[in-house]
Design brief:
Elements lengths: L1 H30 L8 E5 L2 E5 L1 H38 L8 H16 L8 H11 L9 H48 L4 H55 L16
Antiparallel strand pairs: 1-2
Amino acid sequence: MTRNIIAISHLARRIAGTTALALALAAPLALAPVLAPPAHAFFGGFGRIVYDPTNHAENLLTAARTLEQIDNQIASLQNEAQMLINQARDLASLPHSSLQQLQQNVGRTQQLIDEAQNIAFEVQEIDQAFELEYGMPDLSTSEQQLLTDARTRWSNTMGGLQDAMRVQAGVINNIEAQRAEMATLVEQSQGATGALQASQAGNQLLALQSQQLSDLTALLAATGRAEALSEAERAAAAEQGRIQRQRFLTPGTGYQPGNARMFNN
């Protein structure tokens, strides 16, 4: 950018010098007679002076050609200066940046994901929770433990559903900021003065789309997590019901009839 400005300054000096030379050459042409009389000899204090009209005409023709070449050089220098100006415009950076706004939007969504209740979005924690709370119970598990596990699974499901709704609300809140940023970027792109500004505006629009895809990914992940927890709770409840029914029907451990006394006599 600085080099282009210096080059333009040099071109301006060259154009000014060439223009001055052209004016200097054009002045005698304007003052010279168009139709010259035959050659005459003049006598003065400094000797004999001969005026040749043919030679004078040739000199005028040479001066005219020289002036035409100078005009061509001036036009060439002007074109070169305009080319450097256009290059400077192409190298100008876009004055607007969406990076901070996009990072804020992604940060808000990421915070909602990090605040997932009970079971986080981590493979190791998910494996541990399913092994302890969603594993297959056996006949030796106490009724109290079965009830505790059922309540824990219900709590996980409700937490997953709430997390999904919170992420949905966060994504919806980001829409307004995305709309305003998109309008700004489109305006900047339409008013770009050079290729670099237009390219930077296009890149920022692509970054905005990436942020929207990030929100969509987070939303799908939270919704899928809630559905998976709900299905896991349903499957675990069905297995727990089977174990409890089997325990009730097993001889010696189910219901045992006894004597009932309704009165003290």
